[in-house]
Protein 1
Amino acid sequence: MICANCKERIYHARNKNSKQYCIHCYMKLFDPENAKKCTTCNKLFDPKGFYARSFVGDNCFMCSYWLKAIDEVAKDENTFVASGRLYTINPYEGGPARLRGFAGRLLIFMMNNSTILKSKNAWNGSVIPERFRPQLPDTAVLVKTYDASCIVCNKTSGRLRPLLPGHYYCEEHYEEHKI
Ligand SMILES: [Zn+2]
Ligand SMILES: [Zn+2]
Ligand SMILES: [Zn+2]
């Protein structure tokens, strides 16, 4: 869906005179008194109709989403960036495949720190907008195949961390063997 005014892709649409507008253009053109100005992108937005927790300070919904992502990537190793895309791993791999991320497809990531992460429940948090790329650089790459197994128990799934080059350990054995 494209905004009738700015011609950009719409994330939050508002209807007016049977045309679709992005929330920023809608507020600017039709409802400026009720608009708030985003501290990051300077666009107008409507804080009503969303939970207050959706927003970080006086940032619009989209900027808030990415500011939260920056925070998540910093503190949660299950949230990371590969090829300009945000991914979140849900460690739970049970239940029907169709209810998991990427329909339960196995995705293999090589982290910048050489950890291999194999997941059948990876969620795509969408492409990072150009303006947030400096704060959300790639921390992983998506690889097609990677043969690695825990040197102790031979486990080949989940998170495998190297202690020496090419010597991988599952999470349990990594904790036991790290110095
Ligand atoms: Zn617009
Ligand atoms: Zn914004
Ligand atoms: Zn192991």
Protein 2
Amino acid sequence: MSDLIDRTGLPPRFWERKPLRDLSRREWEALCDGCGKCCLNKLEDEETGEVALTRVACRLLDDATCRCAQYEIRHQFVPDCIVLSPSNIDDNLYWMPATCAYRLVHEGRPLHDWHPLISGDPETVHSAGVSVRNMTVPEFAVDEDDWDDHIIEEPL
Ligand code: SF4
Ligand code: SF4
């Protein structure tokens, strides 16, 4: 499958050569590994703040591609979808997937070998078993009271 994220013509290792806040829009978008894990619903314990991941996906997540079906206009359908940026990463770290490329770069860590920017192949995030391909259920198919029946460990 061709890369659904435009990673063409970008400077080599751009994410290692400048801080996140200096990335261009295209570079920022290209940093996403396409795992889809951020589009799974989470359950947060109000008392402990602990966050549990579920396999119940946002209604716009395409389970086959792990991409948002309406990324550019998603807020028309999902107004509270977070727009991650260099200025709000710290506030969102508590729920971000352990392998999320934005988290890794923010924390000064290298991207994994399976990241498409390293491998040159958008399939490697899936073949490495890190993505949510073929493992989600859409949120409209599961009553919200039953989401805790679908808690999973993050695929790593
Ligand atoms: S978890 Fe991070 S790297 Fe994975 S799809 Fe979401 S934003 Fe992209
Ligand atoms: S609206 Fe799109 S980007 Fe936002 S959580 Fe849903 S599928 Fe993911």
